[in-house]
Write a structure and sequence with these properties.
single chain; 412 residues; Aspartate Aminotransferase, domain 1; 2 domains; two-stranded antiparallel sheet; binds pyridoxal-5'-phosphate
Length: 412
């Protein structure tokens, strides 16, 4: 199903000013603990009222704290911190989970995108098709290689609209880079069919979709290369920056292994121009534990999403929809509301932290002025950026907090 601007009905406004910047108040609470900073409130016996955070990594960590501590201590005590047994084991375990031949651990999700495109020799004069509605990192992966991003509007599920793909293809198109945004798998059969028919590479940005599937197949396994971020808030998150690429092509895998390590496979022999983007042992050890439990986290967030979908009944709220055949990792629960700024302010006043993913589309970002796009070029994406809002959602979020969000939104 395609999405049109009429469906969103957001009046167009200048995207250069983020509504978040305009409405975020200064909080008197500690952003990590959610507790009041002022001892005076305790002194006067005021009731302790907890801010509902957007995400609480402490709560996520607490679900399996003992195992995380054992694993990271094991890595620390090993005395070997870069390119060791933990990384090797994590790469094998993640590749086995996905059912691919190779996983190459990297520093970040952005590096995964940059190096995946570099490994395919995509550069100046080349074009890569990418969703207009995505996080800027997806586009940076293309432009860091000197290639040009060609944007395509989203469908009704906020992902790349496969029906609009073919009109974006040109003789310079080298790849389609799809993003499983907010955790939901794209329409992969259709996208796969088009990449095969036009003989272009298929890349997947799975930074938000660990464990999500299309027609039973895991995201990251459709394309020539799957790119993952393990940023701490992601469905499969590390305790710092981390990422990976996965592929079943042994030649690409070898090139990616060299690219991440100064372009060498043997110390001091540099065959290609590479970078330093190695996933370190501490993060790998942490991720080996996270890998065992992240689907549990997806299910917990899925349960909260189910409650939001069923119990938020405010007529001005538009809920996200699941594409037939797709599942979601429920990284984010993104609603739409025409009075978005009012809703954001109202939730803040009710001690509920919402976020916006994302307030400025990449084509209107200052850094991409040189691409020559103007407001109105991607009206669906622009209208979305004006009306979307992400509700608090994390594994370990208490039932009462979920109920409080539901009640607050319904009373808006
Ligand atoms: C869709 C998408 N792609 C890529 C990235 C980049 O990942 P990282 O933060 O690990 O560089 C992110 C991270 O937020 C993302 O959401």
């Amino acid at each position: 199903m395609s999405l049109s601007t009429k469906d969103i009905r957001a009046p167009y406004r200048d995207c250069s000013k983020s509504p978040v910047e305009m409405v975020v108040p200064s909080s008197c609470k500690d952003s990590v603990t959610g507790r009041k900073q002022s001892q005076l409130e305790d002194y006067f016996g005021l009731e302790e009222k907890r801010m509902i955070e957007f995400t609480m990594l402490k709560d996520v960590f607490a679900l399996h704290q003992d195992e995380y501590e054992v694993a990271t201590l094991r890595a620390l005590r090993s005395g070997w911190y870069i390119m060791g047994g933990e990384l090797e084991a994590f790469e094998k375990e993640f590749a086995t989970y996905l059912g691919v031949q190779e996983c190459i651990g990297l520093n970040s999700g952005l590096d995964a995108l940059i190096l995946a495109i570099r490994a395919l020799d995509i550069g100046a004069e080349d074009e890569v098709i990418v969703p207009a509605n995505t996080y800027i990192a997806t586009v940076l992966g293309i432009t860091e290689n000197g290639a040009r991003p060609v944007f395509v509007e989203p469908d009704a599920y906020y992902n790349l609209d496969a029906a609009k793909l073919e009109e974006a293809l040109t003789p310079r198109t080298k790849a389609i880079l799809c993003v499983h945004l907010y955790g939901q798998a794209c329409n992969m059969r259709e996208i796969e069919r088009i990449t095969k028919r036009h003989d272009v590479y298929l890349l997947e940005d799975c930074a938000q979709s660990h464990g999500a599937r299309f027609e039973g197949q895991l995201t990251g396994t459709f394309g020539d290369i799957g790119c993952f971020s393990f940023y701490p808030t992601k469905p499969l998150g590390a305790a710092g920056d981390a990422g990976a690429v996965v592929t079943s092509d042994p030649e690409l895998a070898l090139k990616l292994r060299m690219l991440r390590n100064y372009g060498s496979r043997k110390k001091y022999e540099n065959e290609i121009v590479g970078v330093n983007s190695r996933l370190d042992e501490l993060q790998a050890a942490y991720l080996r534990v996270a890998l065992q439990y992240f689907e549990e986290g997806n299910a917990l967030r899925g349960g909260i999403a189910k409650r939001y979908a069923a119990e938020i009944t405010h007529p001005e709220i538009v809920h996200p929809q699941l594409l037939l055949g797709a599942t979601s990792a429920y990284h984010l629960y993104v609603i739409r509301c025409q009075r978005r700024a009012d809703l954001f302010r109202y939730l803040t006043e009710h001690d509920i932290k919402a976020q916006i993913h994302y307030p400025i589309p990449p084509h209107l970002s200052t850094c991409y002025k040189y691409l020559g796009y103007a407001p109105g070029d991607f009206p669906i994406t622009e209208a979305l950026s004006q009306s979307i809002l992400s509700l608090p959602l994390y594994a370990g979020m208490r039932e009462e907090a979920v109920s409080a969000v539901i009640q607050a939104v319904n009373e808006f």
